[in-house]
Design brief:
CATH superfamily of one domain: Histidine kinase-like ATPase, C-terminal domain
Structural class: alpha/beta
Distance between the termini: 57 Å
Length: about 350
């Protein structure tokens, strides 16, 4: 329907221009000595009509030839009657060259726009394929991992040989790694596929305290917390997933007894959360790409999903995230989230109520 309406509009535009040009050609013949004004009206209207709706090359050349011939005929007619000199007829080839130059620019721009659109569509298709892969892989991995872990534990319980026990522990450890990867795949799929978030009144200070308590036993690091952000509008489940990804990243890139600092504050209506460590930092060549899915960097590799989860969560809240290497060393990630959402329906939580 839209294509039909567009075609009709193009037809009426062309017919309207043709009628306007015909009137001005008649005026060129009827106004000897003053034909310059309608002459330029014809050429200016031709450029405007083409600019509003570019034509095919065949139609463009045919129309250009017709306009050149008709306006040239009118000028020659006045030359033969002694009204103007032959030099006035040079306007026709000059205007033709100007019009052709405009056609070249318009077609070049149209080709560039078409190429950009094709690239955007290709990237969109690739992202859709990636999301489908992530969703399917996350579900398909969980069952065989559960079965494999069950058999490994059965072997450990039935064989008391120390070497068998050590081998089983290695197998279980690798299965746990695969399980965590599957969980992250599922988290990434949920975050990227769902554009709607359920905002609640979240006491950010309490949430960060709870997060630090969960992580302290998991890694031998010096943990610190400095949070004064208060209550914000956020999806607590997604925000917790983003924090877990940032802390997991910090643990991976710091050594035992390293320092990981978590802080939050309120700045100009935004909650600013920072995760900072004293690890090896982020290679400069990777800073621009750390939040891309499946890009794990050049050191101590990873799945490349953790920071992609962070970016997706922050974007779904209408916020921003950045990574940098402080001059004091290590890496620092900064999340800025709107403290409140005007059109959001906030659901009080227990943490906020207390």
């Amino acid at each position: 329907m839209w294509a039909i309406a567009s075609s009709r509009a193009d037809r009426w535009l062309f017919l309207g221009w043709a009628a306007f040009a015909a009137v001005n050609v008649v005026l060129m013949f009827a106004m000897p000595g003053k034909e310059t004004v309608p002459f330029h009206f014809v050429w200016i209207s031709l450029s405007l009509a083409y600019g509003l709706q570019p034509w095919s090359l065949t139609r463009t050349y045919v129309v250009l030839a017709a306009v050149g011939a008709v306006t040239g005929w009118a000028l020659v007619h006045h030359v033969q009657n002694g009204v103007i000199g032959w030099e006035e007829t040079t306007e026709v080839p000059l205007m033709s060259m100007v019009f052709l130059a405009m056609v070249w620019h318009v077609r070049r721009r149209a080709a560039a726009n078409a190429e950009a659109q094709a690239r955007a569509e290709s990237e969109c298709q690739m992202r859709d394929a990636q999301r489908r892969f992530v969703r399917i892989a996350s579900h398909e991995l969980r069952t065989p991992l559960t079965v494999a872990r069950g058999y490994a534990e059965l072997i450990r319980s039935e064989h008391r040989h120390p070497q068998v026990g050590a081998d089983v522990e290695v197998v279980l450890d690798e299965l746990d790694k695969l399980r965590r990867i599957a969980e992250r795949l599922l988290t990434l799929a949920k975050v990227e596929e769902s554009s709607r978030i359920r905002l609640e009144q979240v006491d950010l200070d309490t949430l960060l305290q709870h997060t630090i308590r969960r992580w302290r036993p998991a890694a031998q690091r010096h943990w610190s917390l400095d949070s004064h952000a208060g209550v914000i509008a956020a999806d607590p489940e997604r925000l917790e997933a983003a924090l877990d990804s940032l802390l997991d990243n910090a643990v991976r890139y710091t050594d035992d007894d390293g320092t990981i600092a978590l802080s939050a504050r309120r700045v100009d209506g935004h909650a600013v959360i920072q995760v900072r460590d004293d690890g090896i930092g982020i290679p400069e060549e990777d800073l621009e790409f750390v939040f891309e899915s499946f890009r794990s960097g050049s050191v101590r590799g990873g799945t490349g999903m953790g920071l992609a989860i962070v970016a997706a969560v922050v974007q779904s809240h209408g916020g921003s995230v950045r990574a940098e290497n402080p001059c004091t060393g290590g890496a620092q990630f900064t999340l800025e989230l709107p403290a409140g959402q005007r059109n959001a329906r906030l659901v009080p939580t227990a943490a906020a109520a207390n």
